TrEMBL record:
The active site is at residue 328. Homodimer. Substrate binds at residues 298, 302, 329, 356. This is Diaminopimelate decarboxylase. Its EC number is 4.1.1.20. It catalyses: meso-2,6-diaminopimelate + H(+) = L-lysine + CO2. It is an enzyme of class 4 (lyase).
Length: 412
């Protein structure tokens, strides 16, 4: 996908616009599969929260992926996209028993991460197989908001609560078919991941009827040229050896499962936006675009880095710009970033916009959410239309005659 292709997409579908390259998604899926080719049973469950457009879900299904979901709505989207219930795992956090019951009735696999719900669900549905999410108390991840396996995390059942967990399982006679962990996102140190896996293996020995062990995901992708990333091939080699040895000790060939999200779609996505204003102040040159953190919140929320390129002037002289949005509060994508010279009307592209960009977008400031386009086999395919004012107001209720006369302020 060339700059010319991207500019044509912006011209055809308007801007801002999200663009996803299907070939990159397929390449990442195959890369992860190949890294664990030494495992007899491997299951990749795409994490729908990263990018849940139904066309993307259908693409994942066509690759043979399962689906990792965190809400009943994602479960329903997965079923609409054609996933079989048994290929969907429901891994929520802090949801009601009713939501988990609803997922169970749809026939998807259930993953429970707290003792309270485990006991309630097991007492009510002892014959429904359940996976248990363990908190290994391992700190991993590139940001405190996305490090979820440490001791103070709200996620998972503490390894120190295993005796209590086993008592619940014994009393309810429930069937535990899987053990799961997820330590965090943007993992660089595979030794930390391997250390956490040893904790998971040790925990798994307490359960005699497992079908799978789920290691979550959180693999880091590069955000700029020369950036470091998780060495998937090295991790695949080392974890495969450990996993196969455990299966031999366990006496059964288990399925090794992962839940990649960002790893599969992040690099496949680009976000295109037009420059509205180039503004020189006493110390800074601002490039203000026709978007804001309502469309790309990660830099403001996580301090995430997105490489920015001026595809309208890719060979221009580099200058320093602070790229900002149109939201009426601090709304900064990049400060003093070297970008080829920008003029008003130029199109900028934000790299790594495939994961947690559209899915975290909002209508803040009553702005419309952009269109989504899939670049597939050399063609641009519209997979979500740009919102209109009708979308903003369609669920609002205009109560007639509620304010039938002029309201006057009362002074006390």
């Amino acid at each position: 996908m060339t700059n010319h292709d991207l500019l044509n997409i912006a011209k055809t579908y308007g801007d801002p616009v999200y663009v996803y390259d299907s070939e990159k998604i397929i390449t990442q899926f195959n890369r992860l599969t190949n890294a664990f080719s030494g495992v007899k049973k491997l299951k990749l469950n795409y994490a729908a929260k990263a990018l849940s457009n139904i066309t993307i879900l259908k693409l994942m299904n066509s690759l043979g992926s399962g689906l990792d979901t965190v809400s009943i709505q994602e479960v329903q989207l997965g079923l609409l996209a054609g996933f079989k219930p048994e290929n969907i795992i429901f891994t929520p956090n802090g949801v009601s028993l009713e939501e988990i019951e609803e997922a169970a009735k749809l026939g998807v696999r259930i993953n429970i991460d707290n003792l309270s719900i485990l006991e309630q669900f097991g007492s009510k549905f002892p014959k429904v197989p359940v996976c248990i999410r363990i908190n290994p108390h391992v700190m991993a991840g590139g940001n405190s908001n996305i490090s979820v396996g440490h001791i103070d995390s709200k996620f998972g059942i503490s390894i120190h609560q295993i005796p209590h967990l086993l008592r619940i399982v014994e009393l309810t006679q429930m069937h535990i078919n899987g053990i799961h962990m997820h330590t965090g996102s943007d993992i660089l140190d595979i030794d930390v991941f391997l250390y956490a896996s040893e904790i998971l293996f040790e925990t798994a020995k307490n359960f005699k009827e497992l079908d799978f062990i789920d290691f979550g995901s959180g693999f880091k992708v590069p955000y700029k040229e020369g950036d470091i990333e998780t060495n998937i091939e090295e991790l695949g080699s080392k974890l495969t050896e450990k996993f196969n040895a455990f299966c031999k000790e366990y006496g059964k060939e288990l399925t090794l499962a992962f839940e990649p999200g960002k790893f599969l779609v992040s690099e496949a996505g680009q976000f295109l936006a037009k420059v509205n204003v180039v503004k020189q102040t006493t110390s800074t040159v601002f490039a203000s675009i026709d978007s804001g953190f309502n469309h790309l919140i990660r830099p403001m929320l996580y301090g995430s880095y997105h490489q920015i390129e001026n595809i309208s002037n890719p060979e221009g002289r580099e200058r320093y710009y602070s790229v900002v949005g149109y939201i009426c509060e601090t709304d900064t994508f990049a400060s003093n970033r070297r970008i080829t010279e920008i003029s008003e009307g130029d199109i900028l592209t934000f790299k790594n916009a495939g994961a947690y960009c559209f899915t975290m977008a909002s209508n803040y400031n009553s702005r419309f959410r952009p269109a989504e386009v899939l670049w597939h086999k050399g063609e641009a395919v519209l997979i979500r239309e740009r919102e209109t004012l009708d979308d903003i107001i369609k669920n609002q209720v205009d109560v007639k005659n509620l304010f039938s006369k002029k309201e006057k302020a009362t002074v006390k």
